[in-house]
Amino acid sequence: MTNHSTFSFKNVSRLVVFALLLRVTSELTANLSYLLVAVYALRGRTQTIQAFALSWLFSMLNPAFAPDASFASIGRYLVIVAGAISVASRGEGSAAGFSNNMVRQFTLFLGVFILIHSMLFSAVVDVSVLKALSWTVVVLTLLSAWQGLAAAQRIALFDQLLRWLIWLMLLSLPLLFIPSIGYLRNDTGFQGLLSQPQSFGPTVALVGALVGGRVMGEIRPACRDIFLLGLSLVLIVLSEARTAGLALVLGLLISALLSPTFAGVSRWRMLPGLRSRRFQGVALLAVVGIFAGGSLLSGTVDNYLYKRSDATNLFDAADASRGALIEDMFVNIQENPWLGIGFGIASDPRFMEVQRDPILDLPVSALVEKGVLPVAVVEELGILGASVVFGWFLTVFRRGARSGVPQFAVLITLVLVNFGESMFFSVGGMGMLLLILLTGAVTGSQQLTGELAHA
Length: 455
Prior knowledge:
By secondary structure, the chain is an all-alpha fold.
C-alpha cells in the first residue's frame, strides 16, 4: 500500500469526527459538513467511497442529534458530483484482480435505457431523469472507484466500512435506555442513532449478513462475529423492522445454499465455518435457549411479526402493512403493463412532494414510498424494463458470489430488505449504503479471486 493510502486510512477518523461535529452543531454547520465531505471526495478513490458513506450517514442521522440541513439535498448531489469527477479524472487505475467490467457495462446500458424511457414515458420527466442520472452516476463511480484500488486497499476499505457500521450499531445501544431519543420516531420501534426504525433495522441486517457470512466462511469463526450476529438479530427485533429480520435470515440461508453454485466451488470449501465446533456449539445453545424461553420468546416474536395487528400469519401482516401500496401499483401495472409509469414516480403522481432548486427550478428531491421492489420496478419501467433490471441483478449476483460468502450474503440481504420498502434506487437515502456495499461486493479482492479460481 502506498504511503498516501496509509495516510488516508490513518487520518480519516479525524475528518469523520470533524465532519460529524459540523453536522450536529447547527443548521449552518450542517450544510458546511456536506461541502467538506465533497472536497474530501476529490482526494481519491478511497476517499470518494468514504465520502459517499458519510453522505449517507449525514442524511440518516437521528434528528435528536442532527438539526435539519436546509441544503442537504443539494449537498448530497455536491458529494456525488465531486466523487464522480475525482474517480473519472484518475482513469482506470492499474490494480490487478477481479474485474467488474461486465457489471459496469451492464450498468451503463441500464442507465441509458432508463434515461430514454424516462424522457419518453415518464409522468414527471424531470424527476425520472434526475433519479436515473444520479443512480447511474453513483453506481458507475463506485464500481470504478473499487476497481481502481489495489486488492489490499479493497479489503482494508471494505473492513473499515463494516467497522463503521458496527460502531454505529454499538453506539446506539445506550439509547435503549433513553426512549425519548432511541424510540423517537414512533415510540415502539428502536431507531438508535438513525432517523427511523426502517433505516436502523436494514442497516443492522447488513451488518448481520456480513458478520454471519464471515462466520460461515471462516474455518474457525471468531467469537466476536458470533456475538455480533446475535446482537444484530436482537436489535432488528427491537426495531420492529420485520422485512429486515426476514432478509437477514433468508439472506444467510440463501447464500449458504447458492454461493457455492454461483461461484463454482464445493460447498464445504466455501463454507468451512458450518463444520466448526464453535459454530455448532453456539447453534446448539441457541436452540436450547429457544426451547427454554418458551412462551416469553413466542410472545416477543409474535409482537415483532404482527406489530400489534389482528393478523394471524405473515401474509396478513404484510397486507396490513403494505397492501394498499401494492394494490395501487397493480392498478398501474394493469393499465401500463409494458412501458410503466416512469422511473421513480409515485403510484399517483399528483401526490408527489417534489423539492426544487429555487434558482433553476430543477428537482433536487422527490420522496416516494413504495413496497416490494420487484413490483415497483414493473410498475415504473413495465415488463420490458423490469426484465433488463432483473438481468442486471443476476449479473451482480454471479459476480458477487465469487467474492466470498460475506459479500454474497450481503448482496442477497440488501435486495431482500427492499421487499418491505423499495429503497434500492434512492441514492439520497438508504439506497446509497446499499450501493456502496453492492459495488464493493462485486469487485472482490485479488486474493479471494485467486483462491476461487484454483478451487
